[in-house]
Amino acid sequence: MNPKEPLSLDDIKAIVEVAGKLGIKTVKFTGGEPLLRADIVEIIRSVPPGIESSMTTNGTLLGSLAHDLKDAGLARVNISLDSLNPETYKQITGTSMLNEVLEGIHAARQAGLTPIKINMVLLKGINEGEIDDFIRLVSGDRHLILQVIELMDLGRCPLHADLSAIEEKIARQSRKVITRRMHHRKKYCYEDAEIEFVRPWHNSDFCTHCTRMRVTSDGKLKPCLLRDDNLVDIRGKRGEELQKLFFQAAKKREPYNR
Q1: pLDDT band at 22 (very low <50, low <70, confident <90, very high)
Q2: What is the tally of structural domains in the chain?
Q3: What is the pTM of this model?
Q4: Containing structural domain, residue 27
């Protein structure tokens, strides 16, 4: 068995089954790009009853898979989309697949994979002028939510853009502001649109109380997104042994911002 190969379907089934026994109520499939897996529909189908499954995808393959994913049990999707301008989209992604993403959004809406969160990472000097375009995209559609995401800046990143000024403007003009319980993050009802601002680096409150457990593609439990010094290998493990490794990983959890 090559340790660098992605987890097998049987491994994933075992992991979500133990997760359900441990009381985990939600699971999100991310990547890389999860829709590149030929068995992704079977993976979604393997999630036990009582666990809500969702997915973060770039949306390029979603158009042809949305209904099958819904039928398999997927509840909703986040779609990563950083530009609505074809040239800028190609500059960011290296592809000319913007239309496929927009078709994926439409297919997800038709299939009922809602609410659909549009994840826009703000990039300094590249897509900062497109905020209004994204607001118009989700405006008036109760199935769409815009998430404006701050690029994680672990050093001096020239593309890092501060969200503060934009959020302050939206906050002043919003007719309603809701604070989400889990993330302690605000959602703004602005110009008939729902908008959230995501600061993964600065939300120390969420970091301190985080209970998420990530599974890497090569089969390791990862208690913290920003740490690689506390991973627990679970590839090939089953039953009680796998359950004990979940507890072991949970004990290794330590807030990154401490």
Answers
A1: very high
A2: 1
A3: 0.91
A4: 9-207
